[in-house]
Amino acid sequence: MLSPQIFAMRKLKFLEISGVNENTYDQVILGEGAQFLATELRFVCWDEFPMKSLPESFNAEKLVIMELRISRMRKLWDGVKNLANLKRLILHWAIELKELPDLSGAIRLEELYLRGCESLRSLHSSIFSLPKLEILDLNNCISIAILSSKSEKRVSSLWRNSELRCLNMSCCEKLETIAELPPFLKTLDVSFSTSLKSLPKLPLSLQILNVSFCETLESLPELPPLLSTLNVSSCYSLQIPSNLPLSLQIVNLCDCSLFQTLVHHIRSVKTKDTKNSRLVHQTLSKLPLPSEVSCSCNSIKTGAVSLESFTSLIEDCLSSLKFTTEEE
Fold first, then answer.
1. Could you tell me which of 320, 286, 288, 287 has the C-alpha nearest to residue 301?
2. How many angstroms separate the CA atoms of 55 and 36, rounded?
3. pTM of this structure
């Protein structure tokens, strides 16, 4: 039992309650009437926070980092708080959290982690225009179906002033579409989002795209010129994209019908000089190839100067790639 008077320390700067086991709800109990009167708080870390929301008296004006993992919260607070110094907000596995407050005051927020917030259906519109936000983690937010802002009438202004670099929406199993992507995004991970039907136009800055296990995804938008990593493994409905960018270095086609289609276009394998070639990693050992093809190579080297199609990517495969016919 934590006495309410503990939080009456006005000069408290650092608060951490962590390292407890799975029975923490029965172990750490906050007495009724707790008032967070500290005005100097910089860091708050409280695993399995037991209250439904933070007290109205909670002062976050000087707060830099807040970590409330596996909490029982349904909301953070009501209204708008002064969050001018907040840089990192972690709310991992707050499975009862249903809404986020207006975060427009968090003008210095750089990282927002909402992994496993299973009851969260949408994001507050203020999040889309936070000027310093670089990382948005929505992994396992299984109730989010559409990433958009209800208050925005124009989709083109969804991410106004945004500097977001990394968007993780992996395992968002109800996600069907994303209205728009941030203009400076570098990494997009929507893997295991099994209901995803389409992606919007990809920003020119994108370097890493992971759509693995997106079983209903049928096509990709035009791939940006800086893309270096493409993971389309287990995308059973995906069609072969055209005009692959020259920048591609890693392509994962494991368990992907896209590769099966490609193989039919390859009639011969020639070994070329790969002295200056790039290594395009492939995970082929578990690839369910069609009956007329067998493959034992673990990597593919290419000296091609153009990757306009997957055919040109594979033509330099080492002679370990062998073809047989059904008659043979």
1. 320
2. 7
3. 0.78
